[in-house]
């Protein structure tokens, strides 16, 4: 099956049979999936990702809101080109992107499951950020749910905000927390962290960052 045939499958079998609900811009999209064989891989604040068993190397990212932003994400992927620490764009439609499927576990889920996050993952993401900046992009909104770890390597799976201007402190703050807290105290033992605890940290971080911006 080539990309055009896959696009036909997306537009005839996937898109008519899913409903993406957006209760809040700060929470993930809610998916009502009635599409046979299509699996929901994950959801972010603006889009949901689907996979089909006939094309295990691809995923389809369907936007649920802010549809103009899809054009910006296309430009981001065109600038990134081929890089091991990013996905790759293979095609797109009015509401969706066809991307290389990235396997692994997010840093957020690794914390939940007690899976160690080696320093190499952090180094890979730092190198990927430098690479993006060299291509006139602004790595934005890089955090634990947008970073996947696979066989000890780090991969950024969401680049939809790389076109934005300004300074995003999420990655520097995460890197600092890894260096000062995770690496010396958690790396060797890598205990399971309860989800309520991670969510509390996430909300506290967002709250304190918002206060800082107002100063």
Automatic annotation (TrEMBL):
Gene Ontology molecular function: protein serine/threonine kinase activity
Keywords: Kinase, Serine/threonine-protein kinase, Transferase
Species: Halalkalibacter wakoensis JCM 9140
UniProt protein name: Serine/threonine protein kinases
Top-rank taxon, per record: Bacteria
